[in-house]
Design brief:
Structural class: alpha/beta
Number of strands: 14
CATH superfamily of one domain: P-loop containing nucleotide triphosphate hydrolases
Largest sheet: 6 strands, antiparallel
Radius of gyration: 22 Å
Length: 363
């Protein structure tokens, strides 16, 4: 997938900006606060319907502007052109158009333009809450597996309904039969989601190992899935997972009614990242955390490419910070030939296959 050009109007710091990256590696450089990350965020809106760091739409308006408009023109690896427009106006829902056709749901954009990101804000994926790691799995799988996205959206709706029913059971002592029905629906979807996540984690680990070796990181990486259903849930055959989870729901039903919420399922699961058999978030230095995240994102980029047959865009914010020259050279070597990468940096970066563009030249 190639971004040919993106136009920004009233977006963040930019009243008007046009950016046309090269086909390989483009480094957008300039001082902090000059709006480099805003360009990546605009591209992210056109690929995944939201801001790079989960910013609210209204926070992306330029100063006192009443609207922003983003127009991205893309070409996939088969040469097919795709135009995406994202418009937002104060007190009006965001609108997204693909080739002039308005999308009824934002989720219809997901997967159309595969995109992998790296941002210092994403360090929370490694050392933050389980929610960050669940979001990582969901974002990656939703871009590569439409059925997973459909199941995930339906799961969230059923989970909300079941939690509402748990409140009714708690307060009124009724609807136990209805609760059983919604538990079955939730469990069916949960089993599908967990199975897909387990397969994804197994595949991702297979890509992380060679990245670590190529970058010469030294540590032995590891990754595992932690299920709220129990320590041994990951070892249960897919055909038996439904019965196992239903039994667990029956066992904890009194707790759920008391707490008015569903206490197990993929919305409470987690990932554990390790190297040398130690938990990364507990023992790694800041530099190790950053390097580990970069390795995970490089592995994910290759996984998405192999799964979809389409090389995803790679958006890397402030990539070179806290990395030595040798490590930077190895990372650029990984990116060269991997499709289109757009990197932000404070300083110009020159090298084989790298084009540097000053943010000031885009204004």
């Amino acid at each position: 997938m190639q971004l040919q050009e993106i136009q920004l109007f009233n977006f963040r710091k930019h009243k008007e900006l046009v950016f046309a990256p090269s086909e390989g590696i483009t480094v957008v450089y300039g001082p902090n606060g000059s709006g480099k990350t805003n360009v990546l965020e605009a591209i992210h809106y056109c690929t995944l319907a939201r801001g790079l760091n989960r910013s609210l739409d209204r926070e992306c308006l330029n100063f006192d502007a009443g609207y922003f408009l983003l127009t991205g023109n893309f070409t996939d690896d088969r040469g097919i052109e795709l135009s995406v427009k994202v418009s937002y106006e104060k007190n009006v829902e965001k609108k997204i158009f693909i080739n002039s056709d308005e999308l009824k749901k934002y989720s219809q954009l997901i997967g159309r333009i595969p995109c992998v990101t790296f941002s210092p804000m994403e360090l929370s994926l490694v050392n933050g809450s389980p929610q960050e790691r669940r979001r990582f799995m969901d974002n990656a799988l939703s871009q590569t597996n439409k059925c997973y996205l459909d199941d995930l959206l339906q799961y969230r709706r059923v989970l909300l309904q079941r939690n509402t029913l748990l409140c009714a059971v708690n307060e009124k002592g009724m609807d136990r039969e209805s609760l059983e029905v919604w538990t079955e629906k939730l469990t069916q979807l949960a089993c599908s989601i967990v199975s897909e996540r387990l397969a994804f984690i197994e595949r991702l680990f297979g890509y992380i190992e060679p990245v670590y070796e190529q970058l010469g990181l030294g540590e032995v990486p590891g990754i595992s899935y932690r299920s709220a259903a129990g320590r041994h849930a990951n070892d249960i055959a897919p055909g038996e997972l439904f019965s196992f989870m239903m039994q667990r729901f029956r066992e904890i039903e009194p707790q759920e009614i008391y707490r008015k919420q569903s206490l197990l399922g993929p919305h409470r699961d987690d990932l554990v990242f390790r190297f040398n058999d130690t938990d990364v978030k507990k023992y790694a230095s800041q530099g190790q955390l950053r390097t580990f995240l970069i390795a995970v994102k490089l592995a994910l980029h290759t996984l998405v490419s192999d799964t979809t047959g389409e090389r995803p865009l790679f958006l890397l914010d402030d990539l070179f910070s806290e990395l030595d020259g040798k490590r930077i050279e190895k990372i650029l070597g990984q990116l060269e030939g991997a499709g289109q990468s757009i990197i932000t940096a404070t300083d110009r970066k020159d090298g084989s296959g790298v084009r540097s563009v000053s943010i000031e030249d885009l204004l």
